[in-house]
Description:
Helices cover 40% and strands 0% of the residues. It has helices at 19-25, 29-40, 65-73, 87-95, 99-110, 112-122. The protein is globular and about 45 Å long.
Amino acid sequence: MTNQATLAAACGLFCGACGIYRMYKDQDTERLEQTAREVFHCRPEEIRCEGCRGPNDCHWSPQCRMLACTRERGITFCYECDDFPCQELTSLSADQRDASLANLRRLAEVGLETWLAEQEARWRCPACSRPVDIYSQTCRACGAALPAI
């Protein structure tokens, strides 16, 4: 699996827009320290992630039920499952503004390479082209306002 493919989660989320992935990859020390202290109650260096399909030793959620389920069923993405969409995926998607289900349907339609290219383009600052995360309202690199999702 290519490095970029590690950013396509089994559930349809794009890891490149994940706040945890972004703060780790961008080495945003201030955010890492604040998140470690206020959210996860750990050391900043413990917040590490190379994407949902990255190595387990550098994976924020190695016990992910979606990833485990797809592996047990011998599939790569939830949309390949006979039970798609299951209740657990539907609940997850509802928590993510229905991004999971929409992304999985798009992924099934256009394929991994095209979907990843679309996601890479979508999650960039329109002003400076730096990667941004789903939770940011302004670009951390240049301060430009980001479009609402």
